[in-house]
Amino acid sequence: MNQGIVIKSTGSHYLVKQDEQIVDCKIRGKFRRKEFKTTNPVAVGDIVDFKLQKDGNIGVITGIHERKNCLLRKSTNLSKKFHVIAANIDYAFLMITLIKPVTYSMFIDRWLVACERNKIKAVLIFNKTDLYDDEINKKLNSYIKIYKKIGYNCFKTSVKKNTGIDDVRKMIKDKTIVISGNSGVGKSGLINLLEPGLNLKISEISEYHEQGKHTTTFAEMFPVAGGFIIDTPGIKGFGLDEETKENLSDYFPEIKRLSDACKFNNCTHTHEPECAVKEAVSIGTVSSQRYNNYLNILAGEEDKYRQDNYV
Ligand SMILES: Nc1nc2c(ncn2[C@@H]2O[C@H](COP(=O)(O)OP(=O)(O)OP(=O)(O)O)[C@@H](O)[C@H]2O)c(=O)[nH]1
Ligand SMILES: [Mg+2]
Ligand SMILES: [Zn+2]
Q1: Which atom of ligand 1 is nearest to the CA of 192?
Q2: Superfamily in which the 2-64 domain is placed by CATH
Q3: Mean pLDDT to the nearest integer, 115-124
């Protein structure tokens, strides 16, 4: 039996790395059906057992080792199935741009909820700072203030001007990191800058829609700056499951911290009297932007954040 790590998944086959050898593997039909809750039973980052076929460099995956963690999302909120973005990761980087394209705060907060839920350390990277004018810089600083206060690591970068990259580089050594975000924010561009030999495909964002063109189509892991980064295809939305919504306040760290001070121990922080969270929002110690996103996720107003007028 051979053992290796999945470095690329295309849905129908998987590249598995064992020492310096890379084997093109499929999975057994039976194995595939057993995992009914996810659209992809095997994800990049998974440690798998595989059998080599007689004719050389082709294999069959026969088992997945237990995951330390994984980042999951529902492809749409209507879908019942989950997609495993990556498995066995130390940090999840979310790349955000406040222009070309605009990353909405609702998207950021939903993604952070998924990280909290899966016990993955989240890091926010605000890219394309070379394009920001005074107004956008004000927004950037307010975002950074909000997220730093909660305890999230935040970085400002310009992949184009090569600024802020060294601080990001320091995070990577000996770690496995997944990088996620909307299409066109510069995920692959950042990896190219960190490890120029890789030459990952990037493309201009569309002029009219100011959105990315989904250039990266499959998740893939690369050796970068003494660690590993999993580049992923850009995503628009981030669907959460019912269970996450039921315990939502557990996944907003600043709300969770205050919950004990609410009058009712089952306080949902929506309509209850003597709610410590609502009091904190009213005096500004909890961000109203975060609180509104909390309320919207609770209320199931799933797709509002896609509208242009949503912050
Ligand atoms: N002005 C500016 N442009 C940038 C910056 N970083 C990336 N870009 C440009 O943004 C475009 C998209 O970059 P990609 O690296 O392909 O974006 P991506 O996030 O990998 O996109 P997908 O693979 O579609 O998810 C390219 O034209 C880059 O040159 C930056 O810091 N400033
Ligand atoms: Mg890309
Ligand atoms: Zn409360």
Answers
A1: 15
A2: Nucleic acid-binding proteins (2.40.50.140)
A3: 97
